[in-house]
Write a structure and sequence with these properties.
Blueprint lengths: L8 H7 L7 E4 L2 H9 L11 H7 L10 E4 L3 H21 L1
Parallel strand pairs: 1-2
């Protein structure tokens, strides 16, 4: 498993293969800012948040990305892990 921002569709198009699954973590701007300001040593300063959100192109319906509300990170992880396990089981059963 790897993670990356892939903010733009054309980035995701370059990464897309049959065995790639995209997960769009939806989080309110205020929550993102709160998280960033709590990590002062992080590589991305909170001052870049607006430009990153402006560049973001949420996945379109035809991209088959899983959208997960991620205001609660632990719950988001549980949802993602369960969905990926379900997908893996379905692939083995096919």
């Amino acid at each position: 498993m790897i993670t990356c921002s892939a903010l733009k569709r054309h980035y995701r198009d370059r990464l897309r293969r049959a065995d790639v699954r995209f997960v769009y973590l939806r989080v309110a701007r205020a929550e993102l800012e709160r998280r960033l300001t709590r990590r002062p040593q992080h590589f991305m300063p909170a001052s870049l948040l607006d430009s990153q959100l402006a560049a973001l192109e949420p996945p379109a319906a035809d991209e088959a990305a899983m959208t997960v509300e991620a205001s609660d990170p632990d719950r988001a992880v549980d949802i993602i892990v369960a969905a990926l396990a379900r997908d893996a089981h379905e692939q083995r059963s096919s």
